[in-house]
Amino acid sequence: MTAAGLIFSNIHDASVPELTRIRTIASVPFGGKYRLIDFALSGMVNAGMSKIGIITHYNYQSLLDHIGMGKDWDLARRSGGIKILPPFITAYDGAAASRLYSTRLEALLGVMNFIGRCDEDYIVTSDCDMICNIDIADVIKFHEENAADITIVTKKVDSSQYPLSASNQVINADESGRLLDVADYTVGTEGNIEISLNVMVFGRTFLRNMLLDASAHGYTAFYRDIVARNAKHSKIMVYRYEGYYSLVGSLPSYFESSMKLLDKEAREGLFGIRNRPILTKVRNSPPTKYTKDAKISNSLIADGCVIEGKVENSILFRGVRVGKDAVIKNSILMQDTFVGPDSSLNCVITDKNVVIKDGRHLSGHETMPFFVGKGIMV
Q1: What is the pLDDT of residues 104-131, one digit of tens each?
Q2: Of all residues in the chain, what percent are helix, strand and coil, respectively (each to 5)?
Q3: In b/e form, how buried is each residue of 85-124, taking b as 16+ CB within 10 angstroms?
Q4: What is the total count of domains within the chain?
Q5: Residue 156: is its pLDDT beyond 60?
Q6: Residue range 282-301, pLDDT digits in tens
Q7: At which of 219, 239, 271 does a domain end?
Q8: Residue 283 within any structural domain of the chain
């Protein structure tokens, strides 16, 4: 068994416009030192995959800076390795040749050359809007054992606990795991439902033939035109994921997903799984410096910080400086944020290189955090 990977870096950019104005959702910082793509990428690498393509659209300079040559994921290889797949026009675009892709299916049609050059048995695809640690090797094994054409990873969730929208797919499958139907999530639906996590396994030849057929018929919607149409004719199976899962579908849900990391059980469910580490870009930063007046409680603080004030229930990325007598509560401060003395922040998210001057007092709410954009001085 061999498999290659495809990661969609831009599919859900519109969900969190505050954070994706200057970057893809794949490169949104998370958890002190990670980017959202690290969870999808690590899952594939942990499954032994050594050829992974990242489908981009626009604003992907930050993603390129983070991924580099892929050495931190052991993907800096002469054969295989990591491939950045920028948007380009192909013969499969037809009437859409004047624009970039706007759907999952169009994105796949745009990387037909990559798929055609793969000689692996399977293609695994993933999005970047979820926080989880899926055993991709087990998903592929399940796919093989069931001789499936497509395997979709799903999760049973309480719809009131996640920022679901029409872009999420509700799955209907029988007890054996065979897909019966799929439909867009209807806003207002209550109770427990089974949703697609947009992690899928395809037979490589099946995927290629499916895309050629879609191009010939002018299809544009992956779930409606491919999955739903083939539910009765192809063997589409559902792999039910039982582990930790959080969805980034809005700025408040990004804030909530981040704050969950302050809970030990959530951290262990995500980072504490043996042989399935979450890998990220390594930076050689000095240890964080805590002065005698610093007070820290229930917080995640990356290296390279200087803390002179009080930090409570917060997440601080690399290089953050907190001035004397400053108070940081329930907040997320991204890389190189500076908070001046005597300032106070509550339920605040700062992007990179933000400066909060002395004596400033900013406050939001957990359902509507106060956001300060990259490089802004307050």
Answers
A1: 898 898 899 899 999 999 999 999 999 9
A2: 30, 30, 45
A3: bebeeeebbeebeeebbebbbbbbbbbbebbeebebebbb
A4: 2
A5: yes
A6: 888 899 999 999 999 999 99
A7: 271
A8: no
Question: What six digits make up the tokens of 228?
Answer: 């739903």
Both tokens assigned to 11: 């599919």
Dihedral sign, CA of 267, 273, 274, 277? Answer: negative
Poorest-pLDDT segment among 1-15, 39-53, 89-103: 89-103
How do beta strands 192-203 and 122-126 pair? antiparallel
Asked if residue 166 and residue 38 are part of one domain, the reply reads yes
Dihedral over Cα of 26, 63, 88, 112: its sign: negative
- Angstrom distance (rounded) from CA 55 to CA 109: 11
Please tell me whether residues 253 and 355 are part of one structural domain: no
CB 83 within 8 A of CB 51: yes
Instruction: Give the residue numbers spanning the domain of 98.
Output: 3-271
pLDDT level of residue 360 (50, 70, 90 thresholds): very high
Task: Fill in the amino acid letter for 214.
Answer: A
Paired strand residues for 350: 333, 372
Confidence check: pLDDT of 92 > 50: no
Q: What is the DSSP letter of 169?
A: E
Q: Are residues 81 and 164 in the same domain?
A: yes
Q: Are residues 47 and 143 in the same domain?
A: yes
Cα-Cα-Cα-Cα dihedral sign, residues 247, 60, 201, 183: positive
Domain identity same for 130 and 237: yes
Could you please report the per-residue DSSP string of 12-47? TGGG-HHHHSSS-GGG-EETTTEETHHHHHHHHHHT
Confidence (pTM): 0.92
